[in-house]
User: Fold this.
Amino acid sequence: METFKNNIKANHSFHLKDFQGGVHDYFLQNLKPDLAISYLHGQLFKKQELKGQIFIAIHGDFHGYSLKESPFGGIWTASNLSSAAISFFIQSLNTALKERGVKSLTVIQPPREYCNQSDLISYLLFTEGFKLMKVMNHQVFCGKKKLRNAAASLELKYSKKIKNLGFEITTTHIQSFNFLQDIMEWNQSRGYKSSITEDRLIRQVSSFPDRYFVISIYQKERAVAHALAVKLTSDSLYYFLSGINPKNQNSITGELIMTSLIKLAADLKVDFLDFGTSALEDEPNHNLMFFKSKSANEYSNKYTWQIQYQ
Assistant:
């Protein structure tokens, strides 16, 4: 066993440094979070080849997060990285953060669709002393062919109803943020809270305009509903935010949003469509989960892990 550990150390190296810029497929990690006083990039190499990485925001109280202001952060690995190498990565990360005086680290590990070793990583975080703080369930529609077939079937199903209602549905890149004001007003009137700020969204869209899409439904030029979707990674589409006008709501409006999301995912040729979480505070929103289950074909968990250093 000792020889095996020595071989891991001999063939792998770990580096933790201030983020100098660069490109990660999960593009939100390329932007320094608003609350961070420093932004760190941990990297695992095997013979000069990058095999694993994590992005960590250190807040003013010296607690670290990966990542707090995004859907998730977490450890990302090459699909063939061994469990021993991942453990070495976590151990090295803990040591380096302690040396910097960091008090704790919270890791929001993405669902397995984004990183196929996420379940293994969660297990190894547990074995290295991390405590499970939170579990959130994502509902996901996986499969390019399934998305394509579903889009064609749903378009046929709803085309006549859309015409009869006089609906016009558009899907575009974001040209203005008027839709966001609509969503906030509609959701506030229903008593829903929003964690997104317009300033932060504008910065993200300005840096990565091709990643964001807004779906809008109009009736007689009046907005009925909007939905915001984002390509968090090159092979995924994430259902980020939506709102329906409470003064002009039809029974199929929600279904048309889901249909438009599936069509967009099929057009973009992504591997999966992530409908996100369905929760009210820490309680499952069973009504919303049931609604999404009509479109999703998988359930996948996002885990929040935390370790205290001092």
User: Anything to note?
Assistant: Residues 74 and 109 are 4 Å apart (CA to CA). Residues 144-165 form the longest helix (22 residues). The radius of gyration is 21 Å. The chain is about 35% helix and 35% strand.
